[in-house]
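Journal club prep, notes for RB
We'll compare a predicted complex against what the paper describes. Inputs for the iron/sulfur cluster case:
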Amino acid sequence: MTPMPVELLACAPADVIATLSRAVQRAKGPDRLAPVTVVVPTNVSGVMARRSLGRGAGILGVDMVTLNRLAELLAGPGLAHAQRQPISNPLLELTIRRVLDEAPGSFATVAHHPATVVALRELHQELRLAGEGAADRLAISPRGREAVRVSRAVTRMLQRRWYDEADLVQGATRRLRTERIAGLERLVLHLPAPFDPLSASFVRQLAADRSITVVLAFTGDDAADHEQFRLLAQLDIGAPITTPEPVADAAQAASSRPLRIVSTTDADDEVRVAVRTVIDAARGTLTGRPVPFERIALLWPSQRPYARLVAHHLTTDGIAWNGPGGAALHERIAPRLLLDLLDVDRRGLERRGLFELLADIPVRGPGGEPVPTAEWERVSRRAGVSRDEDWLPRLGALTEHPRWGAAAHGLLEFIVELRTALGHPHATRPWSEWVAWCDEQLTRWLGPGAISRFSDSEYRAWEALVRILEGIRSLDAVAEPVTRSRFRTVLENELADANVREGRIGTGVTIGSLASAGGLVIDVAVVLGAVEGLLPPAPRSDPLLSAADRQRAGLSSPDERAHRLHHEFAAVISSAQTVITLPRGDLRTTTAHQPTRWIESPAPTTDIDSSMHGVTQLEFPPSERERRLRDRLRTRARSGTLSPTDPIVDADVATRRALTLAAARQRDHLTEFDGDLTSVGPYPLAAAAPDPSAPRPVSPTQIQLWASCPHAYFVRYLLGVLPVDEPDSNLSINALDRGLVQHDVVDALHRDVLDGSLPQPTETGWTDTHRAALLEHFDRQCDQALRSGRTGRPATWASERQRMRGDLLEWFRRDGEIIRAHGATIIASEHRFPDDELGSGVALALTDGRHLAMKGSIDRLDRWRDGRLVVTDHKTGKSDAFRKLSEADPTLAGTVFQLPTYAAAALAISGGPLGHRPPLRAEYSMFERGRYQRIGIDFDADVWSRVAADLTDIVTGIEAGWFPPTPPAPGFRFSTECVFCEPDELGTTDAHARWTAKRNDPRLARWFGTASDDPVGPSDD
Ligand code: SF4
């Protein structure tokens, strides 16, 4: 082979820019305006080199391009003229699938596995750049022959209408052979890596009739310079190395630069060290002079976990950065919207899935206005929507509702539109139609002009998405129409492979892969993850070819990436002030790490024992958060503890409050942090006299809640926080809806009697006419429940309906017996109070002479033959909880107040002076689950005084401000009844321990007794 007529300028990594400047000046010669093209390794290095040259000898007439871009500039117009388009990964993969479908060969058993297709695609791309000779050599072995067969078949199918990188390089080489390109007379190859065979031919052709200068950096370490020597051999450079001295000096230069090595617990702490190093460098404490952010780089050997961690910490600490970091492309708004939308009805259009999407994306209505997501979420929950089939019946039932109608209507329209847009999940469309669908949905969901509202990062993501969709659009030529799910898979894979930079190159700290560090012009570098397994990386094996196959074909060896990393590692150390961080382990995989073998000199290592240790050592914290943390830790180290009264803490509101809270919770008595709000009360509930305008009448359940748990009362009634109930996708009607149907049927029968449509029951009880009316009402209520979608699956509903009918008829029979026995007359049904007719309202007396205004609803009020007023409260649940109810204990030790409240309301309805009011009874009337029992109380003066005493206790506790949580002992439960103290629903162990510690506060004894009074609960064991 004839030596390539190029000039080599070898230099130490620290002298790269000076050498490049010299190369450019030599290329220009005496003509300062002569055009020079500099081929750079990456765009980032091109920008940095341009800026550096601009500050020195000038860049007039200097173009910076990568080798790929140069090939594209030369060959692109010709390929476009031939109406060929660039090949995308999905196009290649679909073509490979077609080839395998037609002739799977030895891939038959794995032909449809995505990993097979990806491996064949990667090998095809490598083979294309390796040239036909490589393919011929590979085809000698059976395994290689199969891979080459697929690759050549793919090339044949695509080459007429598409082009790849190999086509570009070959096209550029051909053009150079036949044409003299103006402006390309002088060329500098800046820090090139070894070329693939086609690119080597391209460079050789470039060198054929123009002057080429190669700038190459040597570290002075032969092992680290392995790739540089390989390049020299590849170029077969005949010209002498003109400046050999810097090469010899490089190792010495590197060893004379103090290297800092920091050992940390894990990657998270490494990144914290890196950010602190950035701040130290910017302040000038690292190098003795301030270093601008754009001359600092944070470099990693592997994208995971560093890319995300570095981007996160820099952003959190407000430091500008640029590079491939931060959120993945599919996490950005526009790509995420499409992926979620394409998948939203995977298991049918479920309520939860839709609202996860709506909560995630700033969706717009057809007019571009934001949709009322929160209101729609509430109305759908109110309607009980859970599954796909619930939307129309359940929301439809609410469209006339005065409060929810408008929201239900708007959401229904949206659902119908969404369903139309999605179409049937198994419907197929051509790829280009799916792309058009995506365009349409982006505009529809994000609103016109959405792009103008995007942040810089979101805009870049949107641009990348548009590019990807353009690539997918052309798949119609090679693939059949596809389902939505198949289209989504391809789009998702493309998004996962896309590489999107954030920030502007040259603005802020540069972050990125160590492998791409060649050409960075920096003064300070932090190299993260300098441990075995990452530096050098574990070798990757080829799933398709053996090492011998690859070597014979001249394909890249598994060691090439390690050689490249080694060179960049050594080059960074010798050209910039470098801090190397070593994670001692990976807490995610619980593995220990060894430092990289590439740190030869026994440089002193700073050990950071823990995250806390690192913060304590900080001279200048990079953020306000770390400064506060450091100050607190130092104070604690000095005085052994941190006290809220410490002067340094006193000035820090957040820490002071946190310490005050922690200390309060340690005490053995209740404090304002666990339920003692007596110092900020009172919380008035009762009034001096029965008064219909008394503030906020309370329901019996409100009072009962304080009795069962004061903290739950506090959260619900004073803070106004309600747990969100998720509608279930029940197989059958749930207990609540079943109870509502039964209540409504019974109420409808009573109202027929009250409005005269039916007569009062006779002395023999209910009649057949009443029975017929009852069943008519039952059918109507059941049909309504069915229409509103609350009845579960049809199969279970049929038998459940039959059971409810039987239950209702049995209640009707037994109720008739009561009516007959007592000569009952119905005088009210579902009577809500207070109401306008009730004059003085409904109030329960307290022992201190005050009254508590009450509200509620009486299910039924009768007058019996003996003159008694009888209140009935229907219960469709079990009766066990009320078994012990009696005149002697009318509130079950101050825990239930429904019957006294309804009894008071009945007295108010009956009117008349107090002394002449009729005798009164109140009863629970059970259905089947309560074995049709009637449990009740006859109210007299003694009963009322017991009620007053029990109620006074509770009202006093509430008004005083006692709201401690009283969780049950931990133990196995099927479900969580209250989530206020355990929103994670992981049990009450901690909450119960805290309550137990405070349990014996003597101020609580009046309401909660002592710990010895507690029932023994189940244990976690
Ligand atoms: S979780 Fe238990 S202790 Fe906490 S508020 Fe609810 S009932 Fe009270």
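Talking point for the session: Residues 709, 711-712, 965-967, 978, 980-982, 991 surround iron/sulfur cluster (CB under 6 Å).
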